[in-house]
Amino acid sequence: MKKNISGKLALITLQVLLLPFLTGCWSSHEIEEVSLEIGIALDKGYLSSIDKEFEEQDGGYQKNNNITITFQTVNTKGIGNNSKGGGSSEQHSYLNVSETGDSTFQIVREIPLRRDHPIIGHHLKVIIISEELASNYSIKDLLDSYLRDNDIRPSCLVLISKGRASNALETNVIGEIPSFRLTKMVENGYRSNKILPAMPLAKLTGKIQSESSFLLQNVISADGEVKLTGAAVIKGKTNKVVGFLNEEELEGITWINGKVKGGVVKSSVKGQIIAYEIKSMKSKILPHINSGDITFEIKIETEGRLSENWVNRGKPSDNKFLREIEKSIEAEIKSLMENVVQKMQNDLEVDVAGFGNKLKIKHPKVWKEVKKDDWDVTFSKLPIKYNVEVTVADYGAVSSD
Amino acid sequence: MIKSEEKITTTQAIVIVTNFILATGILTLPRTSVEKVKTPDVWITVILGGLIMIIAAIIMVKLSQQYPGKTFYQYSQEILGIWIGRFLSILIICYFITVSGFQVRSMAEVTNFFLLESTPLWAITMPFMWIGLYLVFGGINTIARMFEIIFPITLFFFILVLFMSFKLFEIDNLRPVLGDGITPVLKGIPATILAYTGPEIMLLLVAFMQQPSKAVKVVIIGTVIPMIFYVFLVVMVIGALSIEGVVVRTWPSIDLIRSFEMSGLIFERYESILLVIWIMQIFASFVISYYAASLGLAQLFRIKFNKIGFILLPIIYIIAMSSNNINELFKLGNMIGNSMWFLFLGLPLFLLLFTKLRGAKS
């Protein structure tokens, strides 16, 4: 009996002693006490007037002012005020903070010196790099700290901005968060073929390491508005921006590599506008090797709808007219592709449409040989044939004009 | 010799083998194998590695079946005499101790990096090890029943989460198939072996089986399940990150899960849930190797099993903490993988042939 009681006592003591272990996270921080960064803009270093004043007062450390990073964080204070419904609803739901330095990671850790809430990266959605910076520094170096980070997820998107990157993180619409706007815009590829498939850090790692050139979506901004326009060309050897493709050139690229999910081809018949809506498309890059010479053939098959027709007395119900339309669209698609290939081969000397990759897949041995030289240079001298087949499957709700 | 309530069923044996195999390898296999193979054909390497492991496991089973009811620690003394037998047993015990130390440390390292950033390593490892000790005291049957709970949960979630990454998958990342021929594929096999450590438990497990005759079936099914899973894993990871990307990522499999967000489902991010479940899997591996080592020492030196458990606990902890950085940890992992060739392929084969020849003579 006595033994039983002491056993119970021991059990109770043990239970009490174990309680402190159940308190949960050792190293937790309250979510209200941190700033969630959702967007980052990397720009060429510039000092704001406040920065200059700080430096005059000896606030600073040994650094070069190469890079200015703008952090966009969610403004929790603003949200709180809005819910009260007071006059403070004018406040934006985001906050932008800039800091200048030379190490991207050091710059983040300078923020706690200036703000009460340190920045944490768990919810980073988008990184925008300005052209000025990316043409001078390798994006591999610029993004290194983000790729290494344990908080920042590799799902974070990367964009290039032709102008100041931090401007893309501004908006005039109250309640809108620019970083979220950008990530949503990138997903609009099913409505337009001028948008590249999203490039998260996860995919970018492979591209950076592979030494072959690639594209990143370009975003421009003006007065709080942004627009996805064309793409930045990144040279594989250096990982620096070497040029840009405009919207039409990007369209050509998406036709070549078959990454089209939707969109429009505008063309004309008898000088009048017609618009073709892409419903499906298949693209094949076929590398041919004839006695050591490499040639490429692009085969495209697409099916879609005539969505707009300005042609007088053009009856789509007439097969002859339909054929005419198809011819005109075929020619348009072909010229889009020729246009961008011409730019890749003659102006930029890069292959960003995936020709090299197709050669690697179809003829690995040949690829091993050509890889020894600069593929981008080899590519720019290769002949390319085009083969486009358009089928207008229907013409919408109007059969004649 | 072994009490009937200590016996385990065939299914339990399969679950033990599978749970032992699936551990640390899941997180690093895509990288370690691509580093060696350097072509997208890694999935072939993974299949070949699995087949080699199955052959090794069948040899171990055949050897154990020659001595019904006895573990390796007991019959090795019968084959080669007390001293050599003891020496070999100690080698294998050391192997199991190292494996459990390695599992503990990798678990702590990954948890520390992704989940509990400023929690000290000892605070992560200690509860893990204590609970492990508690389970080891329960004996093989308790362990087997515990594993039966872990197994379906982990496998279901692993596969579910892998399927979710389908949006990132690009078939071109896996082509060309055999572009550089078969040589790089073969070169990669040793790198996959660490991911397959596990079937060696059969050296003792056969003695505990209700139907030892089914042991071959056990190792085949027990190894094929992880093999299919690994192939699927490697294909998904390379398909999303490409071989150039996989090589530079320390924990490629977690990165794959971190690379997508599912809005609309209960969770948007799955890496935490995956890691928590993966810890259960590591726990299984840790416990079984801990048990194997304790059993060995108990049988070898006729010490009470429970005492051994307590003695081993600090030793495993020291081994776990002996790596000063992550490179040393990975090196330890490679060492374990390399020792497999001798301990669990060469040695059992030799012992089996020795037994057969001697049997033929007499």
Kindly state the number of beta strands of chain A. 13
The domain tally of chain B reads 1
Separate helix tally of chain B: 15
Q: Over the alpha carbons, how many angstroms does the gyration radius of chain A reach?
A: 28 Å
Q: State the domain count of chain A.
A: 2
**SSE order of chain B, as H and E?**
HHHHHHHHHHHHHHH
Task: Write structural notes for this entry.
The complex is a heterodimer of chains A (401) and B (362). In chain A, strand 11 and strand 12 form a beta hairpin. With 401 residues, chain A is an alpha/beta fold. In chain A, 33% of the residues lie in helices and 29% in strands. Chain A is elongated. In chain A, 38% of the residues are buried. Chain A contains 13 helices and 13 strands. In chain A, the strands form 2 sheets. In chain A, strands 1, 2, 3, 4, 5, 6, 7, 8 and 9 form a 9-stranded mixed beta sheet that branches. Chain A folds into 2 domains: 215 residues, no CATH class; 145 residues, 2-Layer Sandwich (GMP Synthetase, Chain A, domain 3), CATH 3.30.300. Chain B is mostly helical and 362 residues long. Chain B has one domain: Amino acid/polyamine transporter I. Chain B is 77% helix and 0% strand. Chain B is globular, with a radius of gyration of 20 Å. At the A-B interface, helix 8, helix 11 and helix 12 of A face helix 11 and helix 12 of B.
Task: Please name the defining characteristics of this protein.
heterodimer, A: 401 residues, alpha/beta, GMP Synthetase, Chain A, domain 3, 2 domains, four-stranded mixed sheet, 13 helices, 33% helix, B: 362 residues, mainly alpha, 0% strand
Write the layout of secondary structure elements.
The complex is a heterodimer of chains A (401) and B (362).
Chain A: H1 2-18, E1 35-44, H2 49-56, E2 67-74, H3 76-84, E3 94-101, H4 104-108, E4 119-120, E5 126-130, H5 131-134, H6 139-148, E6 157-161, H7 178-186, H8 201-210, E7 214-222, E8 225-235, E9 240-245, H9 247-257, E10 264-269, E11 272-290, E12 293-309, H10 319-348, H11 355-362, H12 364-371, H13 375-379, E13 384-394
Parallel strand pairs in A: 1-4, 1-5, 5-6, 6-7, 12-13
Antiparallel strand pairs in A: 1-2, 2-3, 7-8, 8-9, 10-11, 11-12
Helix pairs in contact in A: 9-10, 11-12
Chain B: H1 10-21, H2 25-37, H3 42-65, H4 72-80, H5 82-115, H6 121-137, H7 139-164, H8 183-187, H9 189-193, H10 202-208, H11 215-248, H12 252-258, H13 271-301, H14 305-321, H15 326-361
